[in-house]
Specification:
By secondary structure, this protein is α+β, with helices and mostly antiparallel strands. The chain has a single domain, classed as Endonuclease/exonuclease/phosphatase (Deoxyribonuclease I, Chain A), CATH 3.60.10. Helices cover 37% and strands 29% of the residues. The chain contains 7 helices and 12 strands. The strands form 2 sheets. The chain has a 6-stranded mixed beta sheet. The chain has a 6-stranded mixed beta sheet with strand order 5-6-7-8-12-9. β10 and β11 form a beta hairpin. The chain is globular and about 60 Å long. About 8% of the residues have low confidence.
Length: 264
């Protein structure tokens, strides 16, 4: 089973970050990795060798000083990656995988204000044209509902929320949510690939969702509830059960890693 891995590493040059990443890649047969907050203004082949190994190719958008930075890496013998566009907020490209076809993948580290993020939505929209499956994963620095927020000031709908919601609607993307600091697990093709991300949010377009049975079932029930205003009690119960089962599945890797960290 091969994996696509995303992680907000908060410093890619740290030795412990490299050890952690190598372990995740090894345990999950990773072939594509997206890192945000690399905090690296420059990077070369030797850095990549130390971070993940010499059999990986890479593309890096540098940080500004020690703020931000996005790095994507792919295992050369399994996949190829063609960069379509990049900025301080994203790296977007076409990922071609042996036996799995082509995917459009964006690794995102959104700006901290709505004005800055407007250019992010524009970049993503211009790159996501076409019928290829699309995945956008990362730290968007934007929330879509009060349920996404814990603590701090009271939640108010902002222009940033409206911009993100408009992007989702206009481009037929669907938010599959997040589990705090835990991992999101999405099946691509049953038994062949999965996405494992430790970031705030994962957005999938309809072409991608066709290959994710659990997410597809949840989405269908959510669409029915939205379009009709409500759903039958039995379907509402089924929706809650499916979301609960997904959340339980997502929490397992995080619990394992926390336990492992305490032992070490």
């Amino acid at each position: 089973m091969a994996s696509i891995i995303f992680w907000n590493c908060r410093g890619a040059r740290k030795k412990e970050a490299s050890l952690y990443l190598r372990q995740i890649v090894k345990d999950n047969k990773g072939f594509f990795v997206g890192l945000t907050e690399t905090k690296m203004s420059s990077l070369d082949r030797n850095d990549i060798n130390q971070i993940i190994g010499n059999d990986w190719d890479y593309f890096h958008h540098p940080s500004i000083g020690i703020s931000g930075g996005i790095l994507v890496m792919w295992k050369k013998e399994i996949a190829s990656f063609e960069v379509m566009d990049h900025s301080s907020q994203m790296i977007m490209g076409n990922l071609s995988v042996n036996a799995l076809g082509k995917w459009k993948i964006a690794t995102v580290y959104g700006g901290k204000d709505a004005h800055t993020r407007k250019s992010l939505w524009q970049q993503l929209e211009s790159c996501m044209i076409g019928d290829d499956p699309g995945i956008i994963v990362g730290d968007f620095n934007c929330i879509l509902s009060k349920e996404d927020k814990k603590g701090g000031k009271r939640f108010h709908l902002s222009s940033g929320y409206k911009d993100m919601k408009m992007f989702l609607v206009n481009n037929d993307f669907h938010d599959i949510g997040f589990v705090g600091p835990s991992y999101t697990l999405c099946n691509n093709k049953e038994g062949t690939s999965r996405i494992w991300e430790r970031l705030d949010r994962c957005l999938l377009n309809s072409a991608t969702l066709q290959n994710i049975p659990m997410a597809k079932d949840i989405l269908q029930l959510q669409i029915e509830e939205t379009s009709e205003g409500s759903i039958m009690a039995e379907k509402l119960k089924a929706l809650r059960c499916k979301v609960h089962d997904l959340n339980v599945t997502l929490k397992r890797p995080s619990t394992w890693w926390n336990h492992r960290a305490k032992i070490r």
